[in-house]
Amino acid sequence: MTRTLLLLASLVFATGVVAADRTAQTNYVLRCIGCHVADGTGLPGAGIPNFVDQVGVFAGLQEGRAYLMHVPGVIGSSLSDVEIADLLNYIMETWAGPSLPPNYVPFSADEVATLRVTKVGNVVKYRRIVAERLAAAGLELPEYPWP
Fold first, then answer.
1. Cβ distance 68 to 74 under 8 Å?
2. 3-state DSSP percent of the chain in helix, strand and coil, to 5
3. Among 18, 3, 102, 109, which residue's Cα sits nearest to residue 57?
4. Into which CATH architecture does domain 2-136 fall?
5. Which of 44, 100, 45, 30 is CA-nearest to residue 68?
6. CA separation for the pair 80, 136 (Å, rounded)
7. Tens of pLDDT along 16-62?
8. Where are the domains of the chain?
9. Is the pTM value of this prediction over 0.90?
């Protein structure tokens, strides 16, 4: 019986499913929790947006996806393209809720590599451009106190 359990545990870990989920969650704890807190609600009073039921609006627009890649905690994280894709997908799956577009396509390492080299300039100004496009599409954005 013990041998069977060890074999099953080895197979589960070998598939990478458990390890990938844990890696994304661990990276969230290590890289994001300081600002976006454990439950994703952020610190709006300090300029850190709430993820809950709101962050998904960015995933349906190419410029929104580029914006997510270039927020300081992501672009400056030193994570690999695979780790960033897994982390962004974890955030979307965990907190986007109804804000996630019905045609949502998960982030891939290839997309992250492309977005990483996309020039957005000042990320706060770029967010304003994204916000205008999303608002024009009738989508509500998370509160953002930066001028």
1. yes
2. 65, 0, 35
3. 102
4. Orthogonal Bundle (1.10)
5. 100
6. 34
7. 444 444 589 999 999 999 989 999 999 988 888 899 999 999 999 99
8. 2-136
9. no
